[in-house]
Amino acid sequence: AEDGIRDFCLSRGLGDVYKRQGINAEYMGEQYLFIKRQPAINIMDREKIHACLNLVRRLPPSKVVQNTTALQNLLPEQVDEISQRIDQPLEVEHDTATGLDFLKSEYNRDGDSYRSPWSNKYHPELADGITPSKELRELEKKSNAAFREYVKLYYDTGISSVYFWEKDEENFACCVLIKKTIQGQKGVQEGSWDAINILDVTKDKNNNKITYKVTTTVIVDININHSEAGTVNVAGNFTRQNQETFDFLNDSEEFHIEKIGKMVEEMETQMRSRIEGIYVGKTKEIIYKSRQPTGQKEYDEKQRSVNTDLKGNS
Q: Under a CB-based contact definition with an 8 Å cutoff, are residues 214 and 198 in contact?
């Protein structure tokens, strides 16, 4: 889905799904791994959800949060389904135990609480919240340390959070979340970049292979208020997917971090190039065609000069 709307979803609201609802997971061809609730959605409810998604596709991307909330208020029985299928900007929460900020999403949510990758505790506190196994938690801690450095190198400033969860006894999945905000820099009044990278890791020990499938969604929202360009809002999102299979050399934390880090880096680099070429490039083209690059006063003076010359020549 290019517009940040997911028809299938790897996992959302993990605590609610795994602990309280009872689910089945299955592959849908080359689509995302779908966590399917029981009982299945009936035809009428499915049509309502599709209508909501079609509506969101046609509304301003910068208003996705407000529009999603409005749809959830309109269809309170479909709140979870709507929130699972529409990507929204990431929110920041503070971990009081470590003093570090972390990102809130459906991937670390259990009910109304969100798990911190730094302390492994839920905020607000939740006694029976879902947490990864001991082995996966160690991989999660090292991945968070690695991507914290990645953000410093690529984004200068920003917040990252990495969350892991088990799919079964052998396989796992994770999400790498990155958020950067700017304000009052280089003519930008305010702006945000939200990157949501979901990785599905499947081991094939019989053939000594391991497959990493990454689905990356980038949400951009930039507000410009400039004397020459005027007030401009650039908002939108892209979703792309890639899959790679490697020789399963070992099951070490370093092996997984290397493969995950490389795939996320490559996907985000491609997404940045596409956004710069399509969103930013097209916006510049439209602005220069519809608005004068110089001030209105200078433009009016040039027009008067041209008119005077034309009259003189006639």
A: yes
